Amino acid sequence: MTTLTVKDLLPEDGTKGTLVGRVWLPQVNGPAVVAVRGDGVFDVTARFPTVSALCEEDDPAKALSSTKGERIGDLDAIVANTAPDGRDPKKPWLLAPVDLQTLKAAGVTFAISMLERVIEERAKGNPASAEAIRKEVTRLIGDDLSKLKPGSDQAMHLKQVLIDQNAWSQYLEVGIGPDAEVFTKAPTMSSVGTGMDAGLHPKSTWNNPEPELVLFVSSRGEIVGGALGNDVNLRDFEGRSALLLSKAKDNNASCSIGPLLRLFDDTFTLDDARKLDISLNVKGTDGFVLDGHSSISKISRDPTDLVAQTIGKIHQYPDGFVLFLGTMFAPVKDRDAPGQGFTHKRDDIVTIAAPQLGKLVNRMRTSDECEPWTFGIGALMKNLAQRKLI
């Protein structure tokens, strides 16, 4: 991992928005909730012990703006010390901007990724079969379902047509049916942030990044801000069986969120998030380069609908949750041989970027090579108590 700079992190408008992060403080052997401002990084943990607590405020952006905090350093130095290679453990480094919130993810919310899920299922996790199946699936259902409203009469008619042609799929069910797929991505507090290694199961031979918008939601169901996410996915595992979803999605360092949480304020709103353009870049040590680009505006289900299907009278989240909105595309560019498609190689650098949210940068390693996750909820509570913050 090359050394990151502020340019590799901040949104295009710099620190004009209300930016929240978490920083590891070696002197207290624990994390701090920080406000990232033009004149530095400020520890606000004395006012907000957790990011979850900040998101529970009636107006999180206003609450943070009115809290001065204690300056702990320049963002440049903290970012430069974040990558695991060459990190000075005596100096602060950046963490994922999420703590007690449950890590949730919505799946099959974009037409193009829905088609790729159908292809994975039919290929039984074999990338060599994917290209021929892709052509067959496109012939049957087309390649543009973006205008099809899930759960509508038109969608239900298409469902029946596909059933009659023996072409139905469980992925089409959640893609165009009334009920969204929402699952738990990873354990609370297991996320990695920008500059860190992201993990792939060592037995996976067909996998890909999933660039997504991640919404931060309070216990009241209010969407308070957003960040970027990489919902790292194992196409071979999930393709063999949907019952392997947990193994395909939940591995050490397989949930990346960052670089910062941008709270909604007059510079960034939910409507801005709905129109967000997100780009993907993958660079390999073999010289391979992959670029992709799409927009949240192409989503099949509105973000508020996905949040409403996640929280309510049938399910509560007392510490709030974050919600990956689903990937906008699945990389299919051939890497090694024609028809083999894309899969990661060791040391790929993945950059997910959006003008309003900055850049989320990770190096890909197998999960057993990534830094082990050791600091969980119990450790956080003990640490905050020792610091007399709770």
TrEMBL record:
GO MF annotation terms: hydrolase activity; metal ion binding
Ranges of residues in domain Fumarylacetoacetase-like C-terminal: 223-364
Keywords assigned: Hydrolase, Metal-binding
UniProt record, GO biological process: small molecule metabolic process
Superkingdom of this protein's organism: Bacteria
UniProt similarity note: Belongs to the FAH family.
Name this protein carries in UniProt: Fumarylacetoacetate hydrolase
Organism: Bradyrhizobium frederickii
Taxonomy of the source species: Bacteria, Pseudomonadati, Pseudomonadota, Alphaproteobacteria, Hyphomicrobiales
